[in-house]
Design brief:
alpha/beta, 5 helices, 105 residues
């Protein structure tokens, strides 16, 4: 785990920061603004409530791997045919979603 102070100006700069680590998988948290419009990057959207989710999802292109919340009440209410993962309860399902995404062509 690496903590970076300050937000990179672009995803390329963020990747350069981590490029020396020689990793097979890179999970970056907190860079929604940099990757939302990129169709070559899988995304996990974390949200607090429906208004937060609607704001994030309208700006986000596929692929979306998962929609995650810590709010059990939101997950119970649902929203259309979207499925929410409640963390940490559904961590195994999140791992399976990530594995499926990694294996996909």
């Amino acid at each position: 785990m690496v903590d970076v102070s300050g937000e990179p100006k672009g995803i390329e700069e963020a990747l350069r920061l981590f490029g020396e680590l020689k990793v097979d998988l890179l999970v970056i948290e907190g860079f929604h603004r940099l990757i939302a419009k990129r169709s070559d990057v899988g995304k996990i959207i974390a949200f607090k409530d429906f208004s937060d989710l609607k704001e994030r999802i309208k700006e986000t292109e596929q692929p979306i791997i998962a929609l995650c919340t810590f709010n059990e009440e939101v997950a119970r209410e649902g929203e259309g045919n979207l499925k929410f993962l409640v963390l940490p309860r559904d961590k195994d399902e999140l791992i399976r979603a990530l594995e499926a995404f990694i294996r996909s062509p």
